[in-house]
Specification:
Length: 67
């Protein structure tokens, strides 16, 4: 798949396209401590989430851990 980001949007947007052409719209943010928070719509027919507390969004927080 592929992705496209717009860091200048508020909030920053991310559009992902899967290997079979399926598309998902989302938003993202980086925290000062290095965490990446992503929010994607559950249903491709729904609009992009407006915030990270959107009830129709799946939210993921990615964090690098020290070994």
């Amino acid at each position: 798949g592929s992705y496209r980001v717009d860091p200048k949007a508020a909030p920053a947007t991310i559009d992902m396209t899967g290997p079979k052409g399926e598309k998902v719209q989302g938003i993202y943010k980086f925290d000062k401590d290095g965490k990446l928070t992503l929010a994607f719509v559950k249903d491709a027919n729904k609009p992009r989430p407006k915030g990270f507390d959107d009830k129709d969004a799946v939210v993921m927080v990615l964090e690098k851990t020290k070994k």
